[in-house]
Amino acid sequence: MLSTKLSATVRPFVRKASGIGALRSKHTVPDLDYDYNELEPVISAKIMRLHHDKHHATYVANLNAAEEKVLAAQAKNDVAAQVALQPAVKFNAGGHVNHTIFWKNLIGEKNGGGQLHSSALKSAIEEQYGSLEKLSAQVNAKTAAIQGSGWGWLTFNPAIGRLDVITTANQDMASSVGHVPLLGIDAWEHAYYLDYNNVKADYFKNIWRVVNWKDVAGRYDDAVAKHNSLKN
Ligand SMILES: [Fe+2]
């Protein structure tokens, strides 16, 4: 099956050569880099199975279905139908992209979860926020204040050339407001309720124990490099 990364390049040629949907590439749920139980006791295997195999899979299935409908509407030159489909594309694409980042942002404690080693990111966090503890407190406070469902983010904000802390509603992507996502905290009930019930503050407090800072630091390095290349 063609990967998500290839789809934008391949799809126009496939469509032209083979007709709508004939060989259309589809988005797929990426495999986890770790076992379902690796994040325990912070996040249970039960949540991970449901979250990855059911919730994320549903966003992917619905994104593929919405894109099929968009292609059909385009073929009929039905502009109104294409516009009407955009909320479904936006929501499910966000669900797919956000969760894909989220899985990579996490790793078990025995494999280095929660450990922020010396890096450009560590220096930036300490310079801007004073310490990782102060940063996590700020992220948690903002994320806990989300009304309904959404995401808390540590981002690189190109507008200021620095780290930033934001939230997005529902499945909105950090990139939709011009930020580069580095670390996402899924604040949907499906991310914690089976383990923490209504005490989501404990979920927010504990999740920092399983943050894959190596992944986050790599995203920061990439974002800074891109930012600097655009400046020059
Ligand atoms: Fe989620």
In CATH terms, what is the fold-level topology of the domain at 111-231? Answer: minor pseudopilin epsh fold
What is the mean predicted local confidence, pLDDT?
A: 91
Instruction: Count every helix, treating DSSP H or I runs of 4 or more residues as helices.
Output: 8
According to CATH, the homologous superfamily of the domain at 111-231 is Iron/manganese superoxide dismutase, C-terminal domain
- What is the terminal separation in angstroms? 39 Å
Report on the architecture of this protein.
InterPro entries: Fe/Mn_Superoxide_Dismutase (IPR050265), Mn/Fe_SOD (IPR001189), Mn/Fe_SOD_BS (IPR019833), Mn/Fe_SOD_C (IPR019832), Mn/Fe_SOD_N (IPR019831), Mn/Fe_SOD_N_sf (IPR036324), SOD_C_sf (IPR036314). It is an enzyme of class 1 (oxidoreductase). The chain has 232 residues and is mainly alpha-helical. It has a domain of 121 residues: Iron/manganese superoxide dismutase, C-terminal domain (minor pseudopilin epsh fold, 3-Layer(bab) Sandwich), CATH 3.55.40.20. It has eight helices and three strands. A hairpin with a 4-residue loop joins β1 and β2. α2 packs antiparallel against α3 and α5 packs antiparallel against α7. The longest helix has 31 residues. Fe (ii) ion (FE2) binds next to α2.
